[in-house]
Amino acid sequence: MLRFFPAPEIKVQMKNIIDKLGMGYIKPDNVVVFKSEGSTSNAIARCWELPRIWQEALTIEPHYVIEFCSERYNNLSEEEKEKVIIHELLHIPKTFSGALRPHKGYVNERIVSKLHKAFKDSV
Ligand SMILES: [Zn+2]
């Protein structure tokens, strides 16, 4: 069975990364961080969009959910966890529109490594 839990410890780390990397366009209050258990996907984490029609229908601001799949995420080293968070944050566009940016051109190992190094250097 698929279950979701809030993950405040990941949210704290996420806010830290947003601050250190100057990703001021991301509104942390509008990013919900969940851990999941029992997900059938092979992903370590996923960033979920909120399409504009839902924003209008529910009259809410753009939001994102970042889901961390416990079975795979929990076993990673701290460095790998930081990289996963950076990877997911890179899917959020500068417009914070509720839509997602694709991997191509925006999210890849090279960009993640570069930002992760900047994050470590800033600590
Ligand atoms: Zn991705």
Task: Summarize the SSE layout with pairings.
Layout: E1 3-6, H1 8-20, E2 31-37, E3 45-48, H2 52-58, E4 64-69, H3 70-73, H4 78-90, H5 109-122
Parallel strand pairs: 2-4
Antiparallel strand pairs: 1-2, 3-4
The structure holds zinc ion.
Walkthrough of the structure:
The chain has 123 residues and is α+β, with helices and mostly antiparallel strands. It has a single domain, classed as Metalloproteases ("zincins"), catalytic domain (Zincin-like, 2-Layer Sandwich), CATH 3.30.2010.10. The chain is 41% helix and 17% strand. It is built from five helices and four strands, in the order βαββαβααα. Strands 1-2-4-3 form a four-stranded mixed β-sheet. Helix 4 (78-90) crosses helix 5. It is globular, with a radius of gyration of 14 Å. The mean pLDDT is 96. The structure holds zinc ion. The site of zinc ion has 4 residues, from loops.
